[in-house]
Design brief:
By secondary structure, the chain is mostly beta strands. It has 1 helix and 22 strands. 2% of the residues lie in helices and 43% in strands. It starts with 11 loop residues before the first strand and ends with a strand.
Length: 323
């Protein structure tokens, strides 16, 4: 189902914890002290960063201009994800041939919903067809327009794609063959460079994605897309829940075990901060998050700052602790 003007439904996963009456309770292991970490996305948010809580490590980073679309194979269904960190959007063209540079007429633009649910993408579940997609690539870190590309994805077999990419005027029309990478969530493609790009690290190696992304503000029957900066969850078995009624220091493992976690990639999102025209970005002091990963480890996390020691924005500082 393609998301246009309505919110996708957010699904909840309830974690129920119990024990055998015949077992003796075991004292939880010491998980260590809280850790404070700061990451540098750049003052123009030009970097996308993949972070792992378990190892307190920056696993990978890339310039957000390095890729444009990502291909996903999930439950034997193929999906297209767009890199909307530059304000990109997608349209489907089914009335004109891919060849040539003729007018495409009025295009209907769509956005991926930031929850990451695969039934709420701009492309929908793509099928081999006579039509093709047009992507507005958005703007670079300096605000310059990157233009548009048209592309068509066909599946050669379950593990390989044929991707035809061209400029709208028809001056460039090329086809690349790409092998699906099962070790990552996304097989990433640059429409600007007509190539497969190594962007995402292995899906079991990270938890949080620090990036710009497109948020859709919904009002009545319309929505407004807006580029925000925040944190998206790894879609591979990482879940979180917002906590604003318990002080960070008082959040315990018991709270983590009883929490009702959310699968939406934007559960942490961008709104742990707000913008003040006089003081800039300010962190909400009462907001924390509980996070669980594919190893069933539990963490609490809160944000402390959005500026580095030089006063530059785009440097989220956060505190976290395994529970």
């Amino acid at each position: 189902m393609r998301f246009t003007t309505v919110f996708a439904i957010v699904f909840f996963l309830v974690l129920i914890v119990g024990c055998d009456p015949g077992e003796l309770p075991i004292e939880p292991a010491d998980r260590g002290n809280a850790i404070i970490t700061q990451l540098e996305m750049g003052p123009n948010y030009e970097k996308q960063i993949y972070f792992d809580l378990g190892t307190n490590s920056l696993v990978a980073e890339n310039d957000k201009n390095s890729w444009d679309i990502g291909l996903i194979l999930s439950n034997n269904q193929h999906h297209i994800i767009i890199n909307d960190s530059r304000g990109g959007k997608l349209a489907y063209e089914g009335n004109n041939p891919f060849e040539g540079g003729g007018s495409l007429g009025t295009l209907s633009w769509h956005y991926d919903y930031p929850s990451g649910h695969l039934d709420s993408t701009a492309a929908g579940q793509f099928l081999d067809s006579s039509g093709f997609y047009v992507m507005d690539l958005g703007v670079n870190a300096n605000g310059s327009t990157l233009g548009k590309r048209k592309f068509k994805v066909d599946t050669l077999d379950p593990l390989n794609y044929s991707i035809r990419i061209g400029t709208l005027n028809g001056n460039i029309d090329t086809t690349i063959v790409v092998e699906h990478d099962a070790t990552t969530n996304l097989t990433c493609i640059s429409l600007l460079n007509y190539s497969k790009e190594a962007i995402e690290p292995m899906k079991e190696d990270w938890d949080l994605h620090f990036t710009q992304y497109m948020h859709l503000f919904v009002s009545d029957s319309s929505f407004t897309p807006y580029l925000v900066t925040g944190v998206l969850l790894n879609r591979y078995e990482v879940e979180a829940v917002k906590i604003d009624s318990i002080d960070f220091q008082k959040i315990t493992r018991e709270h983590a075990l009883m929490a009702k976690y959310k699968k939406g990639m934007n559960t942490i999102g961008y709104d742990w901060k707000y913008y003040d025209f006089q003081d800039g970005f300010i962190i909400y002091p009462n907001i924390s998050y509980l996070i669980t990963d594919h190893e069933e480890r539990y963490y609490k996390l809160r944000f402390l700052n959005f500026y580095n020691s030089a006063g530059e924005k785009g440097a989220p500082q956060f505190e976290f602790q395994e529970l």
